[in-house]
Amino acid sequence: MTRRVRPERLILGALAALLCGAFAAAPAATADDRVCDYRITLLDNAATKLDITAVCDPALKVERFTALSDRRHWTTDATQHGTGNGHFGFDLGAFAAEANDMGAAMPYDGGVLVSPGFLLPLPETEAAATLRFRVEFPQGGEIQTALKPDAEGRYVVPLLRIDEVGPILLGSVGVAAVPGDPQLRLAMPADSLQLAPATLAAWVSAAAESNRRFWARSPAQGGLVVLVPSERGGIPFGRVMSLGGSVVTVLVGRQASAADLYDDWVLVHELLHLGSPLMRDTGAWLNEGIATFYEPILRARAGWKSEDDIWREWIGQMPRGMPAMTEIGLENAGRAGIYWGGALFVLLAEIEALKASGGRIGFSDCLRAVLAEGADATVKWPTARLLQRCDDLLGAPVLAPLAERHIAQGSNLGGSATALSQIWDMLGVALTADGRVRYDDRAELAWLRPLIIWGGAERPAPIPATGFHQGG
Ligand SMILES: [Zn+2]
After folding, report:
1. Exposed/middle/buried for 263, CB within 10 Å: 0-12, 13-18, 19+?
2. Cα–ligand 1 centroid distance for 267 (angstroms)
3. 182 to each of 203, 209, 211, 219, 221, how far by Cα in Å?
4. CA of 288 to the centre of ligand 1 (A)
């Protein structure tokens, strides 16, 4: 039996979505869906005051609407709600100023950044309602969203998964295509960051280029990157939400320097998420493993990180994935285990695929094949489907046995390696006592190193990074 949707459930969902990389399959209203139609009118061009009407299908038996934000910001005649209709005044500007939270609403440039779950008065219903909204701007302003409008200009979100939909921008907010990547748009608040807009745009453009090189195409598909000023330093946080369209939200320190940008992993990690389907049936470990494993590789290929730094990081950090891989199983890994457990799985997947194919096909080739078939971050797949797609490409069961050993339960690393140190030995990498990386080209699997790090025998040409000079 379905329960009525309560705001607190949605808030919990919104909190869960704050974990890095919550994203899922695209919604679309079908003939079977019960719809609530909303008309949102911006009463000023900064979207501070909204007039909202809602008309719900009588079959939804809506008796009232609730808002996730404080009711102080709303005016409505609740006696009218029993008909499934509602008329609301929403002081979005006051709510955004009070919340100042990128997961709910916050003032942004000449408008507001707001999550749809906090924008729409939500119907209380036992049915799986589809919410469909249009926005009108009689006083100016506009909407910037990764959601795709239907033929009549309406945006569609499912009530039960509204917390998986990325935030939208309402009001007078400048958004421009990312240079070199027309599939990706960039929003940044003018004058809120120490860095010049051109420097920030060049950084996002360069990160998107490193991502396109990896995927052999743009995985963005109408995606939106939103830079959010932060009082914290550097690039403290990022996340992707992709239900109906991908939104990458990245916190940028107000005082961040150009060197901070290219020296950081967050944006490259989040952009990597855009190219794989959402896999959650066995946990988030494979999505996080892909982004965690390839992020330093992309930055090395772009010339923003050295090969030494990658091996130093992996030798230091991969042990954090060992409990998930060898003891409890990846699907039982906690938050700390999914990143490095997943990354360790991807390292083994890369090694096993390259070995099985004589160096022709790596795990990254499998990922590109999956994206080329249209399975980007807005699509939901079972974990096994992606691994099977790789085995199909390899023409042999390579990933399925690896999954068998490490997903439901832990198992030793198998093959000729039972410990992580043996994998580094086989690859011919070691850390010296003073922290330098020593390479042994006579090691059994040394020939895989350039394939893993550079994607081929040759180191790719660097991607220019304005204001960044890599040390060491
Ligand atoms: Zn992530």
Report:
1. middle
2. 10
3. 15, 11, 14, 11, 9
4. 5
Give the burial class of 338: count Cβ atoms within 10 A of its Cβ; 0-12 exposed, 13-18 middle, 19 or more buried.
buried
Predicted local distance difference test score (pLDDT) of residue 127: 87
What does the pLDDT read at residue 32?
Answer: 65
Residue extent(s) of CATH 3.30.2010 domains in the chain: 175-273
E strand spans, 419-470: 429-431, 437-439
* Phi and psi, residue 338, nearest 5°: -70, -35
Residues with Cβ within 8 Å of residue 69, at least 6 apart in sequence: 95, 99, 104, 105, 118
Pair 99, 117: CB distance under 8 Å: no
CB 115 within 8 A of CB 170: no
Are the C-beta atoms of 108 and 143 separated by less than 8 Å?
no
221 DSSP assignment: S
Model confidence at 470: pLDDT above 70: no
With beta carbons less than 8 A apart as the criterion, state whether 82 and 64 touch: yes
Q: Which fold has domain 175-273?
A: Zincin-like (3.30.2010)
324 Cα to the center of ligand 1, angstroms: 17
Distance CA 472, CA 462 (A): 16
Contact 129, 60 (CB under 8 A): yes
Q: Which two tokens stand for residue 72?
A: 């102080």
> What is the pTM assigned to this prediction?
0.92
Nearest to 21 by CA among 328, 237, 251, 206: 237
Q: Give me the architecture of the 7-172 domain, per CATH.
A: Sandwich (2.60)
- Those residues whose C-beta lies under 8 Å from the C-beta of residue 126, and which sit 6 or more positions away, are 2, 3, 4, 61
CB atoms within 10 A of CB 307: 18
Cα(179) to centroid(ligand 1), Å: 24
Residues of the chain with CATH 2.60.40: 7-172
Per-residue pLDDT for 471 more than 70? no
Output the CA 343–ligand 1 centroid distance in Å: 11
Q: For residue 384, how far is its CA from the centre of ligand 1 (angstroms)? A: 20
- Is 288:279 a contact under the CB 8 Å cutoff? no
Amino acid in position 384? A
Which tokens go with 124? 């209380």
Rounded to an integer, the average pLDDT of 228-234 is 93
Q: Rounded to the nearest whole angstrom, what is the distance from the C-alpha of residue 336 to the centroid of ligand 1?
A: 12
Mean pLDDT value of segment 53-70: 94
Distance 18 CA to ligand 1 centre (A): 11
